[in-house]
Design goal:
Structural class: alpha/beta
Helix content: 40-55%
Distance between the termini: 38 Å
């Protein structure tokens, strides 16, 4: 029968480990491509990916939770409860004046009034005084002498005394108050008129490095400022423009707004400046990335925005209801030497923002966070070295991971990739919590995922299919259990051989040429197929490896590729089983009117070379060496012992298996190719277990 193996074992092993010349895995293209694509995305800064990067920053905040504020910042909240007690918004100016006076009298360091008071308020008394003045002038009484003129003056003094705005202005003037203004930042809008005399109360930010960089600052077209009397009474003005990121979440404080070629500070920045006692001329905006407030340098981006290091969810700073402050229910000591913001937290006033912690975060508490960051220097930074490191990780991680993944199973590779992702995020979380550094790991994480997923998919579509092919094809030569162990350790099929002690079995049909001449070829093929199937089954039951068919001869190996300490016993069991199968076939063939035939088996144990052997063009998994030749010679000796069992084993096999077999010595024989005689045995059967 022709050799049907065709070097299949060798080619399967070759296919499993990669073709010749694959020293550099083709998978290396995947990490290189992943690194290139992610690097391009990193520089393009596409909005969608930037948003995802910001979402990871939000997770840093949520995982860290609340931290202790280092500066006493308090919030007097115009909340829902206060609206129920005091009345609907807006409150009378006299009420606000009393609120400011109460907080100031308690020893507040600075009061930030997060309320825009751009419209005047007219009291009932003021309206009555106006009506009297109008009638007085209409009647012409004012021209009737000095008493009438004095009366008109008294009316005007009365009108001024009952002016609510004047009452509030006096309270503001007597307290360290920074007031709020608002800029319209709608692009393409028409620029409003020249600033009023109160606008300079902002205290312009001096610009360092002025030029094209200033075009990046938010530019206003209009301004809504407090009433001149109120603005003049305040220590300073500050804008309350809070600009969210593209996803609608507030993560930054806009420290400066450009308006009519001047630059105006935010309410929080002005509050911090007043608290530090820094003069106006020491408030400097550096377009290279910072705002100087006296001794404090605030890190910013080129748009003059500061990353907020939130102290935590809402009410991380103490909130005191305004109604309780007015009623005296709040101890005045709560505001001693504190930075106090007065602002709305009631849902109906709509000064609520989306932050990493909440979708209904009070705007006034954003100002509180900003001031605490500045005064305590609790800045969240993204220094230049971070960008360099992130870019290096984008390039290096895929290449390193790709080289490792090709050596791991998909599950192990998945655990490694997941561990890398967790490690990257954990490192970023540590820098965030302990160093105040925002280390954006989104792009490195994308690089890791972009390496693992394509490689895994490719392996699933190719290597796993190859594994299935190998399994199906290899099972023709070794049992399924052996196949599984080979697939688990492909190194068993590496090219080249190793010296190893094995047991080799040869079986052959006696006088098969004569048998073939007496029968039709179709009948010979049919009976030979049935015979060889039974023989291979016997080999596989004992986990032997079918090395090859040589015509009607069968060569099997025990102890490789999977190590088997009892390889000699397994070979003997297989030989006995093969003889048993042949006897069953003989009975079956006689019943079918077919002529049976006899078989001889030779078994020998010795040290051989085993492995993928052959040429570069064709090689096979086989064994070579003198013990292989001796096994073949022992099979041929069966014709000299026609009365024996048909199984002859060498003394080397007998020594290893004698505890489990029944054997009868046949004496010493000198086989062809051997100078020294070999003691041989007839294998009679197996000992009862």
């Amino acid at each position: 029968m022709p050799d049907t193996s065709g070097g299949i074992l060798g080619r399967l092993g070759n296919r499993f480990r990669g073709s010749r010349g694959d020293g550099k895995p083709r998978y290396l293209r995947v990490p290189l491509a992943a690194a290139g694509v992610v690097a391009i995305l990193f520089f393009l800064r596409l909005g969608f990916f930037q948003t995802l990067e910001l979402k990871l920053l939000d997770e840093h905040f949520r995982l860290r939770g609340r931290r202790v504020a280092a500066i006493p910042v308090r919030i007097v909240a115009i909340d829902d409860g206060s609206l129920e007690k005091v009345g609907r918004w807006p409150w009378p100016r006299a009420t606000l004046a009393r609120l400011i006076s109460t907080v100031s009298a308690a020893g507040a360091r600075v009061i930030g009034l997060d309320v825009i008071l751009a419209e005047p308020e007219q009291s009932t008394e003021q309206r009555l005084a106006d009506e009297l003045l109008q009638r007085y002038q209409t009647l012409g009484v004012a021209r009737s002498g000095e008493p009438a003129i004095r009366f008109e003056r008294e009316l005007r003094d009365l009108r001024e005394r009952v002016d609510p705005d004047r009452t509030l202005a006096i309270a503001i003037q007597q307290a360290p108050v920074v007031m709020a203004a608002y800029f319209s930042l709608e692009p393409g809008g028409q620029v409003g008129p020249d600033p009023s005399t109160s606008l300079p109360r902002f205290g312009f930010i001096r610009l360092r490095g002025r030029g094209q960089g200033s075009l990046l600052l938010p530019t206003a077209t209009k301004v809504t400022e407090p009433l001149p009397a109120l603005a003049t009474a305040a220590r300073k003005l500050g804008h309350v423009n809070i600009l969210p990121d593209p996803d609608g979440t507030v993560r930054r404080e806009t420290l400066a707004v450009a308006y009519r070629e001047k630059f105006y500070a935010s309410l929080a920045l002005q509050t911090a400046r007043v608290a530090l006692g820094v003069p106006d001329d020491q408030l400097v905006l550096d377009l290279q990335g910072g705002v100087q407030v006296g001794p404090v340098t605030i890190p910013t981006d080129v748009e003059g925005r500061m990353l907020l290091n939130f102290a935590g969810p809402e009410k991380s700073f103490p909130h005191y209801p305004a109604a309780d402050v007015l009623s005296g229910a709040v101890p005045l000591a709560a505001f001693k030497d504190a930075i106090v913001f007065i602002g709305a937290t009631a849902t109906g006033i709509f000064d609520l923002r989306v932050t990493p912690y909440s979708a209904v975060f009070p705007g006034v508490e954003i100002h509180a966070n900003t001031v605490e960051n500045i005064l305590a220097r609790h800045f969240l930074q993204r220094p230049a070295w971070v960008e360099v490191t992130v870019f290096a990780l984008i390039l290096l991680l895929p290449v390193g991971l790709g080289r490792i993944l090709v050596r791991l199973r998909p599950l192990s590779g998945g655990l490694l990739a997941a561990g890398l992702l967790v490690g990257l995020f954990g490192m970023a979380q540590g820098l965030f919590v302990w160093a105040g550094v925002w280390f954006p790991v989104f792009y490195p994480m994308v690089a890791v995922a972009g390496t693992y997923i394509p490689i895994t998919i490719h392996r699933a579509l190719t290597e796993e299919r190859q594994r299935l092919f190998i399994k199906r094809a290899f099972q023709q030569y070794v049992p399924e259990g052996v196949v599984s162990r080979i697939l688990a350790d492909p190194s068993m099929l590496r090219f080249g051989g190793e010296r190893k002690e094995l047991t080799v079995l040869f079986s052959d049909v006696r006088a098969f040429t004569t048998y073939s001449e007496r029968h039709e070829a179709e009948r010979v093929v049919e009976i030979l197929h049935e015979y060889l199937t039974r023989m291979v089954d016997a080999v596989f039951r004992n986990e032997g490896t079918l090395d090859k068919f040589v015509g009607d001869a069968v060569m099997a190996v025990f102890g490789a590729p999977v190590p088997q300490p009892d390889h000699a016993v397994r070979a003997c069991r297989t030989a006995v089983a093969m003889m048993g199968e042949l006897r069953e076939l003989e009975r079956k063939w006689r019943e079918e009117g077919k002529e049976p035939f006899r078989m001889g088996i030779g078994v020998n144990t010795g040290e051989v070379i085993v492995g993928n052997l052959g040429s570069d063009q064709r090689f096979d998994y086989t064994v070579i060496g003198d013990p292989v030749n001796l096994a073949a010679r022992l099979e041929g000796l069966n014709k000299d012992f026609p009365e024996a069992s048909g199984i002859i084993i060498s003394e080397f096999t007998y020594d290893l298996a004698k505890a489990e077999i029944e054997a009868r010595p046949l004496g010493e024989v000198k086989v062809k190719g051997k100078d020294k005689p070999v003691t041989v045995y007839e294998l009679v059967g197996l000992k009862a277990s």
